[in-house]
Design goal:
Shape: flat
Strand content: 5-15%
Helix content: 40-55%
Order of helices and strands: HHEEHEEEEHHHHEHHHH
Structural class: alpha+beta
Largest sheet: 4 strands, antiparallel
Radius of gyration: 21 Å
């Protein structure tokens, strides 16, 4: 990561260089309050937003902070009070806990306990299949026991380290939320086929930087944010594109590739 993007201990807000980078990561529509909260969480956890260790994502018009299970583990370890965790356990409808899941059907629940150096007992958390599973997701289909165990671990780590992890959620925990939000906003989707007849002024566009930013888009919310931020040039033809391709078409293709 460039030193110009590194968050320092004496910072109180994003620098202009950092804000520019965040906009290219899909946060162009986030307001100052949301960005201030994101800055606080990144500085507090010590995770790098520009290496995608922690990131802010928009769901149904509301921004939330998200990371991976590895990010949770890093935060817990940096606390100085993390003392490990139990192995995961799974159970079926019979409620009998097992330390390995061998059935071809998904487990009903998973649980994990997290140890703190100043706690006498582990902090346990249970994740239920019905609460978190997303069966149209290929990863959940292939590794249902692993994904559910990650949700249980996330819950247990947050319970054990609330001061460090409150307000932050892992990818696995939010999988089902993404599906719910996507269903709710379907009727409100922008009609991508409506053309504009206004002349397109592209004199101030840095096409190389814009192309790089599009390549780095990794979720539909980020594409939507870029769409809104670049409305005035959606029908501009990209330089040297063969056959001629507009920015509108490129973003539509990007959405399709993330489906």
């Amino acid at each position: 990561m460039s030193t110009s993007l590194a968050i320092t201990n004496d910072q109180t807000y994003w620098s202009p260089q950092q804000l520019s980078a965040l906009k290219s990561l899909g946060l162009a529509q986030a307001d100052a309050g949301d960005l201030a909260f994101f800055f606080h969480q990144a500085q507090r956890t010590g995770l790098d937003p520009f290496a995608r260790q922690i990131y802010m994502i928009n769901r149904g018009g509301r921004w939330g902070i998200q990371t991976s299970i590895d990010g949770f583990r890093i935060i817990a370890q940096r606390s100085g009070q993390y003392a490990g965790q139990t192995a995961p356990y799974w159970c079926g409808d019979d409620g009998v806990w097992k330390d390995v899941w061998l059935s071809n059907t998904p487990p009903t629940a998973a649980k994990i306990g997290v140890y703190r150096s100043n706690f006498a007992e582990p902090t346990w958390a249970i994740a239920r299949w019905e609460s978190y599973a997303v069966m149209n997701n290929p990863i959940w289909k292939k590794m249902p026991d692993v994904m559910l165990a990650k949700c249980a671990e996330s819950l247990a780590l947050r319970k054990a380290f609330p001061n460090d992890l409150s307000g932050i959620y892992t990818d696995e925990e939010m999988s089902q939320v993404d599906v719910i939000v996507e269903e709710k906003i379907k009727p409100k989707k922008v009609d991508l086929q409506i053309p504009t007849k206004e002349p397109v002024d592209t004199s101030g566009v840095d096409w190389n930087s814009l192309s790089k930013a599009i390549d780095e888009l990794d979720n539909k919310d980020a594409v939507k944010n870029m769409w809104n931020a670049r409305k005035e040039i959606l029908d501009a033809v990209l330089p040297e594109s063969n056959p001629p391709t507009t920015l509108r078409e490129v973003l539509i293709q990007k959405v399709a590739s993330l489906s």
